[in-house]
What does this fold into?
Amino acid sequence: MNMTKKIPAKPLARSKKQRKPKIIEHPLSSETEFTSRETGWLNFNRRVLFEAEDSRTPLLERLKFLGICNSNLDEFFMKRVGGLKRQVAYGISPKSSDGKTPMQQLVEIRKNVLQMTQAQAECFSKTLKPSLKEKNIFLVKWADLNGKEKEQAQKYYLKNVFPVLTPLSVDPGHPFPFISNLSISLGVTLKAPNSDEKMFARVKVPQVLASWVRINTDVPNEYKFISLVNLIQENLGDLFPSMQVLEVMPFRLTRNADMTRDEEDAEDLLEMIEEELRLRRFAEVVRIEHGPNPDPWMLKFLMEELELTDDDVYELSSELDFTGLGVIADLPLPQLKYEAWSPVVPTAFLDEDPTQIFNAIRHSDHLLHHPYESFSATVEKFIRASAEDPKVLAIKMTLYRTGDNSPFIKSLIRAAEMGKQVVCLVELKARFDEERNIYWAQALENAGVHVVYGIVGLKTHAKTALVVRQETEGLRCYAHIGTGNYNVMTSRFYTDMGLLTAREEITNELVEFFHYLTGRSLKNNYKYLMVAPVNMFSQFRAMIDREIEHVRQGRPGMIIAKMNNMEENDISMALYNASQQGVQIDLIVRGFCCLRPGVKGLSERIRVMSIIGRFLEHSRIFYFRNGAVDPVDGEFYIGSADWMYRNLHARVECVVPVLDRSLREKLWELLQGYIKDQRMSWDMNSDGSYQQRKGSDKGAELGIQQVLMNLAKQKSVIMEESSESAPDSTGEKL
It folds into this structure.
């Protein structure tokens, strides 16, 4: 093998000069005051894994959670680990919030990941497989099949798998092959007859085929599956006739997706993103996973070719990729799944006349809570009706992640074809959705929609829509401001909120907000909206300080904030000060939280909890009591931003106040339901660890999400088409 011709493992990534990563180090970095973001995220993913381990979760749903945990970890390596490795490669050592260098963080990450992958393997092998077996679902190896079953499996292999396979050998005439991100390969050590020289070949496991192959049996209601990897492994002789197969090792690569871009020097943002996508395919490898008992010679060969160190190698004792278990989770066995949920249609949106939606919004504000209330029959209907209504003159929207076959895209195109003024901001930089968004941007432009890509250097993450309609008394604006994406699919398994309103004080400022996005407006005196990076950070800081002043004056002071993640150190320091001055603070943070709660003398009045369950908690809600005797008279806000540095300083975000008292009552009851939950809640300790609540109250076994589903069903008997086939998720594009 010393004569093997080698090529660089990442040729294209090096063909263009790479910029140093742009690093922001906060001056308040401190291990005593903040926890590790990376460890916090891994702790979140461990809570996701617990859903797979928890016997209270329906069996097939546990397989989904195991796959979600796997997918989340893949993305973590692609983004976070990849970014840290780039910092180390450039010799940059900025401190994290808890005062650690990139190298120290990588060491801590590896320690945690090794524990997590072992827990994943044990969950699958020792818990889920035996539980599936009890339900007549067998996940077997080739050796477990009888003669008849092996014959059936081999016929399937020869007809459906063998023609798709492409073995790639490495020798002086065949350079080391390109290996795509997250694909599973079989590394094969070969030896030719009459030769002692070892040779390497790689066989890619086709991603176009199901990861598990069903074996038909004579037993009624029995399901038996063999993994595609194992099936190929046991039939490798057909790929290498007359050669001796010495060793076979399944392995899987993860490539860096943390690319540095310079938008200010780019002449065409769309072209720059397209180039970045091409480079990402060939980005450096940040992790290799392999099966147990690897061939030392083969592993060393791969590490040399891919330029990896021992710290990049992870040996897994079970499957390399649990996301392929979806074919098992989708079996038609409803008794082993969550009860199918169909969102209810709010009464105000039942009228079949699409124009009546404007009457409903003009009459009163509507606060929507998805997936308990239908997204399709409210938000999607609002945009569709706007596109078709001849009285509508203009539609403006922001799109971040809109999904495939988006009805919103169709409505905007329809509106443009009807001669309406249509403006759409498409965020090309939405991580892992860039290619899809480029496609939609070009489709919209071809239809005559005015497409803009936002403000240079900032991602536009706001979830906003504005409709301008000609009415008898003149022009009237209607608006939707939400916490989640305009994505019909994710609306069925992400919990999000949205406000539909025609209030002039809100819509007038939203008009200005779109001028900021599409033109060069420098408006900074928003009275109602909080807009990042314009006034949102300063407004949140001011409202925290206001709660302190209320307490000093003997009035009630309270802060409740619900979000996905929390990392903004200045906000954390302000909350520490508020806690020390007597303000009660409850933070409902699904993912990681870098603030330390319950530290004596620092944060004794701060509680942090996380909700993990069937639906991904995605809504952002902010409450400030503002001295009110009745808590409902406090201030409530919803919007797109977390209390993260990136959200408050490096993205365009929009947060809106909820002014209608009946809607504030709804939000207060919702927040109290989250805080009191005893089924899905985890309390954060001051050291950054989490402890699951063990409720004994009557009804505690339901959990807040089931309670909200029950309440929604009680309020309406009008149901959408069943969402049984929609996927569940506790994973999100970070």
Notes: The radius of gyration is 27 Å. Residues 1-18, 718-729 have pLDDT under 50 and may be disordered.
